[in-house]
Design goal:
- Helix content is 50%, strand content 12%.
- The protein is built from 20 helices and 13 strands.
- By secondary structure, it is α+β, with helices and mostly antiparallel strands.
- A hairpin with a 5-residue loop joins strand 8 and strand 9.
- A six-stranded antiparallel sheet has the order 6-7-10-4-11-12. It has a three-stranded antiparallel sheet with strand order 1-2-3, with no helix packed on it. Strands 5-13 form a two-stranded parallel sheet.
- This is Apea-like HEPN domain-containing protein.
Length: 538
């Protein structure tokens, strides 16, 4: 073995996969090696690798090259029937524990994972395509046994009612946001890739043991889903606009948490082309730079189930509701930061979202071009602002905010997406109306309720009532085509937005009982008839 051959092998399989094949994790306790550190048995493995791997320059595209590498490593070795990857690692002196499981389906999957684990470590894979495991799986006896066991399993075989000469057993399905056909011949590969992706939520390069643990969980959830049950699946949401004051800070929202971006997230976004930096200055005069791909990640979950049917006229409402529930949670947490800083509201926007479930080979990804949002202003949160975000987040997530969902959505639009002063004003006053409007006497009710809610005494409420009425009239002129806003009136649109956020904060944090009332008219009547005053006196 020469250094030239060493370089060729490293180029083809990468350091992570190579150190696994050489059992360097066991012998040297390392995840990367140099040529000089190799032991005699590792040099022998390198010679074998060099003889079975393809010549890199014979391929026109990187994907074709990596597919050929995966095929060579994943196919069975002549000696023992295990894949070449397992055979080579054993030659290097690695210890393999016997794969065991009381569940026969899990046992077949775990044996397949053993043979193809090294392929998961290969470089150059596309996160939205999953690792190329076909060569290791489809020629493997455990895969044939797995497929036969699925067809004998009354819980799982219902997913594959159709049989075709060319595609084998398959069946249609619909899930929250996705759908299509699930095919038995690709099921094991799908589940193993799903388990690998889930394991990568904990560490960038999970071990075989960690992936195996996830695989057992994936199979368990897959069975529940096949039975028509609802399961919780992990979701990651990248947020941009702010940074936490320290990367060690974790903000707990009971069923979700917020943390800084770290090495676990890069593989999800590196291929999206949404990165880039935005520089700014903090109020204290310090320089700050945010990443459009997000500096903060929300870890949460969503409900997931399927319908065993093809798409017809429209997506089933219960599946749409699952996605909508997740979207509402993200909206409320974005709102919580704005409420915590309502006098000078801070903006955080969604950059990307990844949903992990066993009916997809890779995470279901969606993303937005945050760099097109001209309203982003880089900010580093203070500890007090983080505490405020946590407090307001807990509160809004615990309340029936569905009753004022239009107010929530319009407030976020005014804060984070509207650039024209007229649009900011219209959306902001729509927040007022959703909170306190009615069919009759809308202006009187809305402005009176807002003044009572936000004022502290008779004088401040009178002054606020006049200001609110002027803004309301200005909105009416814009809506009914009398005039647009003059440049000097932009500040009034911003003021309307601040009042909208302050009103939402007052309702959520100080008077949540208002959200128990049926509509804006009931809320305004309660306020104007002294309901809040009586609560305060009590």
């Amino acid at each position: 073995m020469t250094e030239e051959k060493w370089s060729r092998v490293v180029d083809l399989v990468g350091q992570r996969c190579l150190t696994y094949l050489l059992a360097a994790d066991e012998h040297q306790g390392k995840t990367s090696l140099t040529f000089e550190e190799l032991l005699p048995q590792q040099l022998a493995v390198l010679d074998a690798l060099d003889s079975i791997l393809p010549i890199g320059n014979e391929f026109d595209h990187e994907i074709l090259k990596m597919s050929a590498v995966a095929t060579r490593l994943g196919c069975p070795a002549m000696a023992n029937g295990s894949s070449w990857a397992v055979t080579l690692r054993a030659m290097a002196g690695a210890y393999f524990a016997t794969v065991t499981s009381a569940d026969s389906l899990a046992l077949h999957l775990l044996r397949l994972l053993r043979d193809c684990y090294a392929l998961l470590l290969l470089p150059g894979g596309h996160p939205m395509m999953g690792a190329q495991l076909a060569a290791s799986i489809f020629t493997n006896p455990s895969n044939r046994e797995f497929e036969a066991a699925v067809l004998q399993d009354d819980d799982l075989n219902r997913l594959f009612p159709d049989v075709s000469e060319h595609s084998g057993h398959s069946g249609p399905y619909m899930s929250p946001g996705t759908g299509g056909t699930i095919q038995l011949w690709g099921l094991s590969e799908k589940l193993i890739n799903a388990a690998w992706c889930l394991a990568r939520l904990d560490t960038e390069y999970p071990s075989e043991e960690a992936t195996a643990e996830r695989l057992v969980g994936v199979l368990r959830d897959f069975r529940k889903i096949a039975l028509g049950k609802t399961v919780k699946v992990p979701v990651r949401v990248g947020l941009t606009g702010v940074q936490l004051p320290d990367t060690s800070i974790v903000v707990d929202f009971t069923d979700s948490l917020l943390r800084s971006v770290d090495e676990r997230d890069g593989w999800l976004t590196s291929h999206l082309g949404i990165g880039g930096k935005l520089s700014g200055e903090t109020p204290e005069g310090d320089s700050i730079q945010i990443d459009y791909a997000g500096d903060v990640v929300l870890e949460t979950t969503m409900d997931f189930k399927i319908h065993r049917q093809s798409f017809k006229d429209e997506w089933p409402m219960d599946l749409r509701a699952m996605q909508m529930k997740l979207d509402e949670k993200v909206e409320l947490l974005r709102l919580a930061l704005a409420l915590a800083t309502a006098e000078s509201p801070l903006l955080v926007v969604v950059s990307w979202q990844a949903t992990f479930h066993p009916f997809e080979t890779s995470p279901k990804m969606s993303w937005r071009e945050a760099h097109r949002n001209s309203k982003l202003v880089p900010r580093r949160l203070s500890v007090d602002q983080v505490d405020g975000w946590r407090t307001h987040g807990h509160k809004v997530l615990s309340l029936p905010m569905k009753k004022v969902e239009i107010a929530v959505r319009r407030a976020l639009l005014a804060l984070g997406e509207r650039n024209m002063s007229e649009d900011i004003l219209i959306d902001s006053v729509m927040v007022w109306e959703n909170l306190f409007g009615s069919k009759l006497e809308t202006g009187l009710r809305v402005c009176g309720s807002m003044a009572w809610l936000l004022g502290t005494d008779v004088a401040s409420r009178k002054a606020l009532r006049r200001e609110l009425s002027d803004l309301y009239e200005l909105r009416s002129q814009v809506v009914h085509g009398s005039s647009g806003l003059k440049p000097e009136e932009h500040a009034q649109a911003i003021r309307a937005m601040q009042l909208a956020l302050q009103a939402l904060r007052a309702v959520a944090m100080d008077h949540p009982s208002l959200l128990q009332l049926s509509d804006g008219g009931s809320r305004s009547s309660h306020i104007l008839l002294g309901g809040i005053a009586n609560e305060e006196d009590a």
